[in-house]
Design goal:
The structure is a homotetramer of 370-residue chains. With 370 residues, chain A is α+β, with helices and mostly antiparallel strands. The first copy, chain A, is built from 8 helices and 18 strands.
Amino acid sequence: MSGSVTGNIFTVSTWGESHGKALGVVVDGCPAGLPLEESDIQEMLDRRKPGQSKFTTARKEGDEVQILSGVFEGKTTGTPISMLVWNKDQRSKDYGQIAYSYRPGHADFTFEQKYGFRDYRGGGRSSGRETVGRVAAGAVAIKILKELGIEIYAYAKSIGPISIDYTRFDKNEISNNKMYMPDAEAAGKAEEYLHQKIQEQDSSGGVIECVIKNMPVGVGNTVFDKLDANLAKAIMSIGAVKGFEIGDGFAAAESVGSVNNDSFYINEEGNISKKTNHAGGILGGMSDGSDIIFRAAVKPTPSISREQQTVTNRGEEINMVIHGRHDPIIVPRAVVVVESMAAITIVDLLFSGMSARMDSVKKIYEKTQQ
Amino acid sequence: MSGSVTGNIFTVSTWGESHGKALGVVVDGCPAGLPLEESDIQEMLDRRKPGQSKFTTARKEGDEVQILSGVFEGKTTGTPISMLVWNKDQRSKDYGQIAYSYRPGHADFTFEQKYGFRDYRGGGRSSGRETVGRVAAGAVAIKILKELGIEIYAYAKSIGPISIDYTRFDKNEISNNKMYMPDAEAAGKAEEYLHQKIQEQDSSGGVIECVIKNMPVGVGNTVFDKLDANLAKAIMSIGAVKGFEIGDGFAAAESVGSVNNDSFYINEEGNISKKTNHAGGILGGMSDGSDIIFRAAVKPTPSISREQQTVTNRGEEINMVIHGRHDPIIVPRAVVVVESMAAITIVDLLFSGMSARMDSVKKIYEKTQQ
Amino acid sequence: MSGSVTGNIFTVSTWGESHGKALGVVVDGCPAGLPLEESDIQEMLDRRKPGQSKFTTARKEGDEVQILSGVFEGKTTGTPISMLVWNKDQRSKDYGQIAYSYRPGHADFTFEQKYGFRDYRGGGRSSGRETVGRVAAGAVAIKILKELGIEIYAYAKSIGPISIDYTRFDKNEISNNKMYMPDAEAAGKAEEYLHQKIQEQDSSGGVIECVIKNMPVGVGNTVFDKLDANLAKAIMSIGAVKGFEIGDGFAAAESVGSVNNDSFYINEEGNISKKTNHAGGILGGMSDGSDIIFRAAVKPTPSISREQQTVTNRGEEINMVIHGRHDPIIVPRAVVVVESMAAITIVDLLFSGMSARMDSVKKIYEKTQQ
Amino acid sequence: MSGSVTGNIFTVSTWGESHGKALGVVVDGCPAGLPLEESDIQEMLDRRKPGQSKFTTARKEGDEVQILSGVFEGKTTGTPISMLVWNKDQRSKDYGQIAYSYRPGHADFTFEQKYGFRDYRGGGRSSGRETVGRVAAGAVAIKILKELGIEIYAYAKSIGPISIDYTRFDKNEISNNKMYMPDAEAAGKAEEYLHQKIQEQDSSGGVIECVIKNMPVGVGNTVFDKLDANLAKAIMSIGAVKGFEIGDGFAAAESVGSVNNDSFYINEEGNISKKTNHAGGILGGMSDGSDIIFRAAVKPTPSISREQQTVTNRGEEINMVIHGRHDPIIVPRAVVVVESMAAITIVDLLFSGMSARMDSVKKIYEKTQQ
């Protein structure tokens, strides 16, 4: 099955292995007339680039993106946008145990069982590096949303046991610290915690929170293609994500209706609004105009320096040590991936929903074309 | 957009409103040769039927299913299976405030904004009754999985603050109590808790847990169509579900790699297995042969007897009382819906993955078909 | 695979066997606010109903359609529209040879080989009766197109060797004769020809032509989803259709560029128009604003009274006689099916194309919703 | 809409403009374990390369393909295969009238109306050069079919008024002449005919015929996704194709049932076979085991040297001369594109149909995986 293609109208098709020649993505269904240049993409890619701090992998990736199609004279043409990043470091080396053993917490075992063999170099297609294509496509989606006034941002809500304190929430702080936390104090503590994990040859998980502002009402569908359902799929498809919740999420399970229901009222501008936002901006699968707020639980980096028990593909039990430098935490680099997947999802639902009403259909076909 | 169709190869198309003439589903892509009769479907539908206890809606639904196509001489033929349930109670009545007001926690507001108007009778398509089609399709999917030796079961893990105790876990107990809890003691406490909520004109949320046993290794895909991502979408598409987690889920975010990684070993039968199952049966988006375990957070029933503040579609603020009997809890009736959506998802991924290897393709086309 | 579902945004899911309990269709993705009632559907279904003349099957079908969902107070709600027709004549009878033999020109052999067995009653799902669902869905699509001022009509261009004469073309004549020919004289000759075929226990083929007027410019896509490609698939998916051509079609293969190219000019209203229409209204896969004109070649009815040679599913060669009354021609009843499939295809492409430009996207999301 | 992606399980996503940086394709859903190298692709691409004769464009394209992902140690891994060809000649030049005028018979007008502006360099995405991606993907599909013993070949059946004579049919001759005709004598006459067209500053159409041998029985679906319907869409999506027919095609419309029906019999190997093949290898939308034979009508090259009348995008009527060398015929270069699209279509249907029977599903999941 073609598991690297997503989207109904705004289609994203990613490709590329960690240590192959290149990685990239084809975005089909981007409307014509969107101003787009390589720097729009590069800016997003740079946010997922390692080598920025001791908490992210040392390998210099570079990751200079090239737009190969779909843009003419600075604007999208409505045709597929192909974007590519060359892998710089492809020299073959001895992968040792990794070539024939199954790293705990990785896709080595399942991939090999499913396909019969695997590209063992750096995790192949199951590497975190696979997200290059997602982020490049996400940059296009975010550009579209900006044109509609919709804003998306994500940040680390917690790293291991260290959570942000919302009384200190400062959106501008997010890009100031290597933790991508909107709370400088929590970020400091998180750095200390990660130092400790490195010392222990161990790694940490964390939670990413994402906020989407200025959504039009009614994006998403009533039954299977609910906005929250599609966001859940998109976010859970990011490697290492083990949980997703919207609004109060799991806390709602312990709440009562009289608290959890958000009352409607007429706000100062005379519009229908909600007094609270336990729902996280979605009612019955459709955006309700409030902020959309969701969270993703990210597991600890599975690659740790510590010796681990595992088996080989010949059925032998061994002790394995994964050499090289490893990120002790996935969260900071995944923040931009979460934004990207959220944007891709929303753009596809926006476009798929344009024919929801007969009067919208008439608006487009009576005037725009001819 | 067509938000009531799901699946790539095993396609499920549900239809019907709460107080319309009927509800139903068309399942396309069911393999030929599966023994199937109405009682297979009825058994599942009966599990979601209200009127079983004071904790579930009093309205007699009946819900007798008819299979209208796709089955011949007791076996599926490979053509679409159409299943239908007539709505018995469609007499028109005065819906009062509901017709023009937005119930808090419901889809009334978003639906009307998106589509311009809405079928206000009992929630229309946004009613929980919409799950009739999901469960009928789920019954077909579960029948397919049984043929492959795969078993799915779900239960209430918690209702409000009352959680099951795993030391008392008894699978047979699940269908013995109205809470669908595998722990009779917890079920008793949960019933008491719900009595109290009814007294308070309030409602409760809860958590459903689902277990899938005997999965083949390798079901699901590496990137966008990960098994856990597709399960997340399917489960989050059920009304009232606000969170999804697999394996340790959100707890993994607070864990460390040395604990969260599941070591591989060779088990007594000589097969590769895992010593622990923090991953919940999925690695890199593909089933790893362990039990798949996931949880869904269900919000409290939004319809409560208590007076609530809201607005009308003419922009007036009002106090609203929703008359009639309301379930104080959604969880017990949603258990079978969770099983159904999980089964539908897995069947579609199983079928979509049959061409993963060239040797599988040869196996089918060299021998099965002439 | 789910071969009975079509469409990306306007999704049509048909079901039902020739001699099963009922046949029907679920249409998902119809915009809200379209006036729709059962008579809109019935009118179209009546055009495919047999028993109208000696050239169409004698069996009384009735085919009264019921709309079971998706319409409230006379308008579509944006939710799935389920439509159903009960089969009246389902009494079991002795199907004789048909149960175990393969009728020449029918799907009996291929269906049984693919699925292992088959519903042999009246052809099951491979019966022409399968088109009930297509026509019901087509009626909805045609209603949508009418709202946009787009008109579709089809007719018999030829029956066997008898072709219409365009100098006598009269659109109003189409529904006046049983041949659905826009030329009374040709219709008369065609009736005579069919009489002769009935005498000879034989059957005839023919060609259906379809015209679509007032198309907006730009419907369809540049590469795989060209409007003509999608029309070709839709029309070729109708049983018995063996060829499809647009504009000059196969004649263009013998033409030269200087003739086949349609010159653009400025028409009397000051709009860009074409002097000729060899292209049939589509350039580069997109509608060009001229009339779309295409043709479908329909093979002779495979069920003939004459004795034929064939084999049984036990591998024996036999002589077979197919009892009962048979239409000597498929063309007249397929005219409405061609219109239906064309309408379904165009609606889906119209809806899928609404996000072609950034300014269209803004037009919908800046004003319609909220 | 994303009109450059096709396929359900075997997904092909092409990209690239005629005079952009590069063209390419991503193939997702290729089974693991298929031997594949760049020469497999190059061989096919070379067949569509111009500059081979005076009848094909003089521009040196080169078109060296690179495989960027999805292949490891000479075999496909089951992950997306990205293939790319750089455009050598991208220097900007003065496109003169083409930049603002609509060439007759081209997509210039429709593209600009739909998207608001267009990449006018060499036709952009509507150029015949877009087929580079199709052919690269087709090479992968053909490799898969070969593993299953299925063979596809196409050839020119006619060029203008010159048709091949089947009594002289010689498959080996196809690649011997620049016309791709299986009849050397007809090829000679066709060359003469094209010389004449060049003299007349004109162009010619033609017909391509394609044969598929050794198909398993039962590929394709009963209703919308009939094998012939999907082939029709795939072939009609190739630029310049105006008609499609299978088996006797349009001739069947003039035939009678007693002739057009193919009688079944038991052949010398004891298998069920057909005495004739009027159906072209497909019954009821499914392959019947006979040769599949279809034809595509190709219009004359719209770019001709002769002065033509047209309009500009400012609404002025002008006389236009398209400079440069033009192919007087599209047919020979399109032969390999027809083979490619046929192969892509069949592979997708083969993979989508693997779950047609419960026993096939068991065969894969009981043994292959773990």
